[in-house]
Amino acid sequence: MALVQKAQKAKEQAYCPYSKFRVGAAVLAIYSTVFLTGCNVENTSYPLGLCAEMTAISKAVSEGYISFKAIAIASDLEDCFISPCGACRQFMREFGSQWDVYMSKSDGSYKLMTVEELLPCSFGPDDLRKGKNPVGNSKL
Ligand SMILES: O=c1ccn([C@H]2C[C@H](O)[C@@H](CO)O2)c(=O)[nH]1
Ligand SMILES: [Zn+2]
């Protein structure tokens, strides 16, 4: 599967001196044939580390793409489909719930789920618009 192969290739750039856990991701935008890829980028200050999915999505957004068809994730795990962390699920959800997440094993086999399936009952951009309080915080 081409998108999984792009994610596997992106994994080679992983900057993960602390976890030694390489992850790559590739996103495909709607109406596009361009793949944007990313890897995890860790930091000496551990909590600042970025996941591969966030890197790939941020690269895509910064190139002008905000509607996505699919994202693939790759790691070195042989017996386990790499699963996006909770933060990445929310990061994906920002750009819609009805798009595909290909979670792969190191041999390229994959499990496919939608963002909606990975993050049900999610909080998204529409909810924020609905929740606008016209009065604001009167204590301020
Ligand atoms: O789906 C995942 C899971 C983990 N990681 C990264 C974060 C950290 O750098 C390393 C270990 O958690 O793997 C990702 O990039 N994506
Ligand atoms: Zn993550």
Question: Any overview of this molecule?
Answer:
The chain has 140 residues and is α+β, with helices and mostly antiparallel strands. It has one domain (2-130): Cytidine Deaminase, domain 2, CATH 3.40.140. It is 28% helix and 21% strand. The chain has 5 helices and 5 strands; from the N terminus they run H-E-E-H-E-H-E-E-H-H. The protein has helices at 2-11, 52-62, 86-93, 115-118, 125-130, and strands spanning 23-29, 35-39, 68-75, 100-104, 110-114. A 5-stranded mixed β-sheet has the order 2-1-3-4-5. Strand 3, helix 3 (86-93) and strand 4 (100-104) form a beta-alpha-beta unit. It is globular and about 55 Å long. The model has no long low-confidence stretch (mean pLDDT 95). Bound molecules: 2'-deoxyuridine (DUR) and zinc ion (ZN).
